[in-house]
Structure of Glutamyl-tRNA(Gln) amidotransferase subunit A:
Amino acid sequence: VTATELVEASLKRMDATEADVNAFVNRNDEAALKQAQALDAAGIKEDQLLAGIPLAVKDNILTQGLTTTASSKMLEHFTPVFDATVVEKLNQAGAINVGKTNLDEFAMGSSTETSYFGTTKNPWDLTRVPGGSSGGSAAAVAAGDVLGALGTDTGGSIRMPSAFNGVVGMKPTYGRVSRWGVIAFGSSFDQVGWITRTVKDNAILMSAISGQDDHDMTSSHQAVPDFAAGLDEASVKGLRIAVPKEYVSDAIDEDVREVIEAGLKHLESLGAIVDEVSLPHTKYGVPVYYILASSEASSNLQRFDGIRYGFRADDVKNLEDVYVKTRSEGFGEEVKRRIMLGTFSLSAGFYDAYFNKAAKVRRLIAQDFEKVFEDHDVIIGATGVSTAFKIGEDIDDPKKMYYNDILTVTANLAGVPAMSIPAGFSKKNGMPVGMQLIGKKYDEQTLYNTAYVFE
Ligand code: GLN
């Protein structure tokens, strides 16, 4: 099979599904085909591990010459002049970017409903959300457009959509993957990772984008394993699994819990040892995350001032007016809510009461994990408190929307790797259920090994 045939198949599938699903903000048909033809003509070089493979890229990751919008009016016509490091690595490996996927505006949301370009629909049931914020990436994989799509995860944005779409999503350890060229949301949380059909594909692709990068001082020098070569199902025998009681509590829908419990039984039957533990600060995860991530966002989003990038409002009288009008018109409601929340938490009078206190509780949440990992290899529970909800159901109630993230934000607060894998289907509505696996820092391998058992 040629690269051209692969890309054509992917584009054809997009032709068939996009009218319903709306997973892409921007398709890259022409350039992708050209790249594939060039690859076929030149022949594949030995180091091009991903030669000719059609993949998709979340639209908050910079792609040279191809608009990168973060699904915001603010960046509707913004064309980057360089590639993100992860994109550069994919290009070098011969992968082909067939399009930019939809997301919640600036990756703020859990349903892809805050996108300026319209909601993405869940391919399993078009009346339901695909989750967010990487909803376009997960839906593109679930719809069969591509076998892998890049996502970003600040508080669950890879894992939650993966769970809702019955696909595999990995948020690696903070520092594993360069953030250079990724539109910043919460810089101490953001990580790039993959949403794929299979665990093995995810492992292959993760090794391809990981590693230290001079452009990102938080990227780690830790050696990058060949995760796919290391896949080892047998290692589940004797694996010490911790199940936090907070992750299987009755705050989680029964149809979800049933599937997770069955998954744990399966692991036990293969020789894993399952213990109940507690992560007592889990209940503070949502408020702490939303204070800290919004604070970082309010600072990161300062740069969208009508001067440097993208959108600028018309009809302005002076510089102040440029700022106010551009930001009022260019940002959507949820983004403005975060900027206000963040600015408030960081303001002189409230810094100690909010930002500082949240930063302290963040440490306690990280310590919860450290303690459990003293004598366990992996933490397992549900990814979401429910299966994919209906479009429109939570969008007018920000607090309800935020609480959907209760099981995912803590891994970002602690910087540990976490993944979601398809574990079965809900008896209530037939939708996919995601199981979350959380690991020690830089131990993505154990997560991949455990996940591989379910493949
Ligand atoms: N849903 C969370 C939020 O709205 C997480 C988003 C993300 O991980 N980018 O902030």
